[in-house]
Amino acid sequence: MTTSHAEPVHGGLPYEPEKATAEGRNKVLAFWLFLGGEAVLFGTLFATFLALRGQTNEGPTANELFHLPLVAAATFFLLISSLTSVFAIQAMHRNRPALLRNWLLVTVVLGLCFLGLEIYEFSEYVRHEQFGMTTSAFSSAFYTLVGFHGAHVAFGILWISLLIGQLAYKGLTVVTAPKIYVSAMYWHFIDVVWVFIFTVVYLLGKVG
Asked: Smallest Cα–Cα separation from 197: which of 6, 55, 7, 50?
């Protein structure tokens, strides 16, 4: 018996390989391949940053520039958002779409808090430290790496927001459930990348 694409899930886990459509399973597999490509891309940006972080062109150094309390607050928001996305997946597994939407909404709000702090950080560097994109090779590498991650966060916020709307309209089905699962994979990925950024860019910048 073939499961309809609009059919809600009754009982069991809303997203399991045997319950998902073939299209849903293929999307998950394709997304794993996409994340592999993203990992290579971020690895290249990290390598570039490490090669150029000492090229300050008499501009501010990392130790002079970075304010760890602000970055730590942004890190807190993003890591907590990863936890709330786990709670969302657990709600999906229990087939509780209202709770799922609520946890996704909290994840979006926390992501916006992170993005707001990052935008504020960048503006402070430009206004008060004269640290712009073209100040030095270090600044170019910094804004490219951290800004590229910020763009990923913004995309994730938009994506999850659209899924919240889709859940409200279509409910939790064998079509919408894999989309939620894939979005959670993406969100965890950008959280893991940020942990590396926090360590390599900010912590090493302060002690180096």
From this structure: 50
**Other Cβ atoms closer than 10 A to 94:** 12
What pLDDT, on the 0 to 100 scale, is given for residue 29? 81
Average pLDDT by stretches of 10, the chain with 208 residues: 43 48 70 92 96 90 91 97 96 93 97 97 92 94 97 97 93 87 94 96 88
Map 82-121 to HEC letters.
HHHHHHHHHHHHCCCHHHHHHHHHHHHHHHHHHHHHHHHH
CA angle 48, 44, 181 (to 5 degrees): 140
Give the span between the Cα atoms of 203 and 73, in whole angstroms. 14
